[in-house]
Amino acid sequence: MSSLGRASAILGAGTLVSRITGLIRTIVLVAAIGSFGRPADAFAVANQLPNNVFTIIQTGILTAVIIPQIVKSAVHKDGGRAYISKLFTLGTVVFLAATALAMAAAPWLVTLYAHKFTPDQLALATAFAYWCLPQIFFYGLYALIGETLNAKRVFGPYTWTPVANNIISIAGFLVFIALFGGNQNAMDVWDPTMIAVLGGTATLGIAVQAGLLLFAWRGTGLALRPDFRWRGVGLGEIGSLAGWTFLMVIAGQIAGLIQTRVVSDASGEHPSTALMMAAWLVFMLPYSIFAISIGTPYFTQIAEHAAAGRDDEVRGDVARCIRAVSLFVVGSGIALAVAAVPATRIFTESAEQAVQAAPVLIAYLVGLVPLSVLFIVQRAFYAYGDTRTPFLFTLVQVALIIGFSYVAAAVAPLSQLAAAVALGQSIAGLVQTIIAIWILRNRLGGLELPKTLLSLLRFFIAAIPAGFAGWGTYVLMGAGEGWTAGQTGMTFVDKLLGAVGTGVIGLVAVVVYGVVLLILRAPELTVVSGLVKRFLPGR
C-alpha cells in the first residue's frame, strides 16, 4: 500500500504542476486571442480535433486494453520485450495513418463540428486545423509510451512531461503577443504568419511532450526495436477487446460533436466553445490531481489482482479507491463551486464575462464526483478484459447528453446555452455511474457499498458548512463587484487577482471541510495524512 501512496503522491504533484502551468497557458492564450470572440472559437475547435482523435486512441484502445495486456506479457520469458516491440511498431503505423487521414479530411472535420460558423470563421478554423492535426501522431506516441510506463509501475514521467508542453506553449503565445499584439479577436487581421505561430506552437509543445517520455524508458528495463512481424501480438484478442471500447469512445465523440454544434450558435458574444474548454480545464484540476493520480496506480494493482483471479482483493481495491478519491474531490469541488466567478475571471476578459461564464464551471462541477467514481469503476471492468459492458452503459450517457443538448438548444437563452449543455452532461454522467456501480457490484458480489455510502454521506455533510463559509468569504470580499473579480482594467493584474481570490475562497472552504471531517472523526482522513507525508522532504 505504501507504493500506491508514493505513486499517487508523485502523480498528484506532477498533475498539480501540469494543471497550474496549463492554466497559465490558457491565461496567455486568452491574452493573445480572447475567449469570447470568433477567432478564439475557431482556434478552440481546430485545436480540439487532435484531442478528439487522441481520446479515441487512448481511451478506446490503450487504457482499456494495452495496460492489462502488458501486465500479462510480463510473464513471458523475455519480460514482454518482444510483445511490446511489436505493439510499438504497430502503434506507430496506426498513428501515422490516422494523422494523414485526419489532415486530408480537415475541412470536412471543421465543418462537422462548427457548421454554424460564418464562412470566414470556418476558413480560419480549417487553417488552424492543418497546423494542429499533426498533434495526433505525437499524442499517440505519448499515450503509448506513457501507458506502458504505467503498466511497468514507472508512474512519474507520464504526468510530469505535460509541464514542458505548457511551458513551450506559454513561450510561443508570448512571442505571438510580442509580434502581433494581444486580444486579436477580429476576423480580418489574421494572416498565414499569425496562424502558423499560434498553431505551430500548440503542435510543437505536444511533440516535445512525447519526446521527453523516451528518456524515461530505461526505467522499464526493456529494449525496443522495430518489429513488423505482428503475428503473436494477439491482434485478434486486442481487436475484440478494443472493438467495444472503440465504439464506446466513438459514441462519446458523437455526443461531444452534438454539444459543439449546439453551443457554436452562441459564438461571438456569449460563452461558447472556447469558454467551455477553458471551464473544463479548471474542472479537470481536482479530477486530474485526485481521481487520476490516485486511481492510476490502483488500476495497475487491480489489473494484477484480476489477472490472478483474486476477486476479493479487487473488491477491496475498488472500494478503497472510491473512498479515497471522493474524500478529495468533494472538498475541492465545493471549493471551486463557491469560487466560480474569480476562477473563471482567470480566462475571461472582464468581470461581467466572468459572472456570465461561472455557471458553465458550476454545471460541470455537478458531475465531478460521478465522473471520478466512474473512472475507477470503468477500469475494474477493463481489468477483467470486459470492454462490452462499459460500452453498453456509456450508450445511456450518450443518449442522455444528446437529448439534454437539444433540449438546451430549444429552451435555454444564448447567454446560458453553454451552461445548460454542461449541466446536461453532468446529469447524464451521474446516471451512467449509478448503472456502472450496480452492474459491477452484482458481478463481484459486493463493493463495500454500505461503508462507501456512509463515507460519501460524511463528505457531503462536511461540504455544506464548507460551501457556506467559502460563499460568505466571497460575499465579504465584494462578490462579483469586488477585487476577486479583477476590476482594475489591467489584464495581468485582473487575472492574478482572480487566481488569488480563488485561492483564498477555496482555502477557507477546504479548511472548514477538513475541520468538520475531524469533528465527525472520519476514518478516511488517514489517507490524507499518508499522502501528505509522501510530499514531505526525506519521504
What does this structure look like?
The chain crosses the membrane at residues 7-33, 53-75, 87-110, 122-142, 163-182, 194-217, 238-258, 278-300, 321-341, 361-384, 391-411, 417-440, 452-476, 496-520. With 539 residues, this protein is mainly alpha-helical. It has two domains: 1-233, no CATH class; 245-528, no CATH class. Helix content is 79%, strand content 0%. It contains 20 helices and no strands. It is globular. The model has no long low-confidence stretch (mean pLDDT 82).
Give the helix tally.
20
Uncertain parts: none
The SS-based structural class is mainly alpha
- The portion of residues forming beta strands comes to under 5%
Order of helices and strands: HHHHHHHHHHHHHHHHHHHH
What is the typical, i.e. mean, pLDDT? 82
The span between the termini is 15 Å
Coarse shape: globular
Domain count: the total is 2
The gyration radius over C-alpha positions equals 23 Å
Organism: Microbacterium bandirmense
Keywords: Cell membrane, Cell shape, Membrane, Peptidoglycan synthesis, Transmembrane, Transmembrane helix
InterPro entries: Lipid_II_flippase_MurJ/MviN, MurJ
Protein name: Murein biosynthesis integral membrane protein MurJ
